[in-house]
Amino acid sequence: MRAAEVNARVRSLLKAHGYFWEADEYQYLEMVCRRHVLHQNKVGEFFEWFFKDLMFGYGLKWKRPFISVLVIILIWALGFTLHFRLNTPYDLVTCIGYGLYYSVISFTTLGFGNAPDLVGAWPKLLLSSEALLGTVLMPLFLLAYARKILQD
């Protein structure tokens, strides 16, 4: 816990003197130190590392949620592309286009009314799971990005 306290003190000194970006780096280091001390079981530490640190950078690194959003959209687009390739007569380029379209629309939860090309359970599971992820991840990305903008 000593390292977390040192990082917290350095962070507060930097903020007091107007060095907000540098203070964010020490706040990030403080959160990493706290994660290592607080989690005694490996499963809890892994989930905190994966979701809070890797995907979001504890809300302090705006590029991480942006990259996470892009990676999720591309992975789900691959699943939709596979579905269209196996279940429709479309060529590969058209299937990739449909896969990206369905992935972006479902992630942003815009909705497309009736989705007639999605037959079966697993493409609908892809749709609903990506819409749920989009509902959670988009506000986190916007929060981290707005935080950086307001500090300038």
Compute the number of helices: 6
Please state the CA-atom Rg, rounded to the nearest Å: 20 Å
Mean pLDDT across the residues is 85
Q: Quickly give the structural class.
A: mainly alpha
The CATH architecture of the largest domain is Orthogonal Bundle
CATH topology of the largest domain: Helix Hairpins
H-E order:
HHHHHH
Largest sheet: none
How would the global form be characterised? elongated
Count of separate structural domains: 2
The CATH C-level name of the largest domain is Mainly Alpha
Helical content band: over 70%
Question: What ranges have pLDDT less than 50 throughout 5 or more consecutive residues?
Answer: none
Instruction: Tell me what portion of residues adopts beta-strand conformation.
Output: under 5%
Structure description:
- The protein has 152 residues and is mainly alpha-helical.
- The protein folds into two domains: 1-61, no CATH class; 62-152, Helix Hairpins (Orthogonal Bundle), CATH 1.10.287.
- The chain contains six helices and no strands.
- α2 (20-38) packs antiparallel against α3, α4 (63-87) crosses α5 (92-107) and α4 packs antiparallel against α6 (121-151).
Brief overview, please?
The protein is mainly alpha-helical and 152 residues long.
List the helices and strands and how they pair.
Layout: H1 2-16, H2 20-38, H3 42-55, H4 63-87, H5 92-107, H6 121-151
Helix pairs in contact: 1-2, 2-3, 4-5, 4-6, 5-6
List keywords for this structure.
152 residues, mainly alpha, Helix Hairpins, 2 domains, 6 helices
